[in-house]
């Protein structure tokens, strides 16, 4: 029973990680774009 609960807990953790991956990647993508924009703005000025 404990092993079964541990297995379902691990599956739930993997599911949470997989469902939060698009959000994390979009946040990282927007942060990278903002950094590039600020760098290009400081470079042009």
> What's the overall geometry?
rod-shaped
Parts with pLDDT < 50 across at least 5 consecutive residues? none
What about the largest sheet?
none
Number of strands: 0
| Secondary-structure element pattern, one letter each | H
Description of the structure:
The protein has 45 residues and is mostly helical. It is 96% helix and 0% strand. It has one helix and no strands. The longest helix is centred in the middle third of the chain and has 43 residues. It is rod-shaped and about 65 Å long. The model has no long low-confidence stretch (mean pLDDT 85).
Question: What's the short story on this structure?
Answer:
With 45 residues, the chain is mainly alpha-helical. It contains 1 helix and no strands.
Record keyword descriptors for this entry.
single chain; 45 residues; mainly alpha; 1 helix; 0% strand; rod-shaped
Topology:
Blueprint: H1 2-44
């Amino acid at each position: 029973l404990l092993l079964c609960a541990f297995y379902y807990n691990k599956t739930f953790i993997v599911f949470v990680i997989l469902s939060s991956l698009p959000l994390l990647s979009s946040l990282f993508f927007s942060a990278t774009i903002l950094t590039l924009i600020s760098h290009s703005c400081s470079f042009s000025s």
